[in-house]
Structures are given as C-alpha cells and as structure tokens.
Design brief:
The chain has strands at 8-9, 21-32, 35-39, 43-47, 59-66, 72-81. With 86 residues, it is mostly beta strands.
Length: 86
C-alpha cells in the first residue's frame, strides 16, 4: 500500500495546510464525545473517528485533513501513552 507524504506540523502551520493531509504530534488536553483538543504548540480541535482511542494527558500522533475552520479530521490516530516525556 502506497502512503501519501504527510508533513509534520503544529498549530502554527494549520492555515498553510488547509485541505491537506498532515501529521501532528501533541498532548491530548480534553475529550468531548466526537472531538478532542490537542496541544501542539497551540490548541487544535480534532474530529475523531470510531477507531480513535486517545487518553487525556497522553501524547498522540494524529494523521488527518486540515479543515477550513483549522480543525483536523482524523484519518488515523496513535496514542503514545505517557512515554514521550511531559
């Protein structure tokens, strides 16, 4: 399976990557039903899918598409647990 190149960004670069697929590594700040808030040098609203299993206060990598409102629709999410420092 070929994989699409995905730039790794943080909250400061969302506007430059609207409608594009990106990777974001950050800390899960809150879970709210079908959305989450991720801290990646600024807060990002993440729209979760059914396969997402994130934990508050844990590190995660999100692969998703940046929406017009600068939120990110998750395509894939990896919870790194507490193993990335604090």
């Amino acid at each position: 399976m070929a994989s699409e190149a995905t730039p790794r960004i943080n909250a400061h670069y969302l506007e430059q990557f609207t409608n594009q697929t990106v990777r974001i590594v950050g800390k899960v700040l809150a879970l709210h039903g079908e959305t989450a808030t991720l801290d990646a040098s600024g807060s990002i609203t993440i729209h979760l899918n059914r396969e997402c299993h994130l934990t508050v206060n844990q590190a995660a990598e999100i692969i998703g598409k940046v929406q017009q409102d600068l939120s990110v629709k998750v395509l894939q999410a990896t919870d790194f647990g507490g193993g990335m420092g604090g």
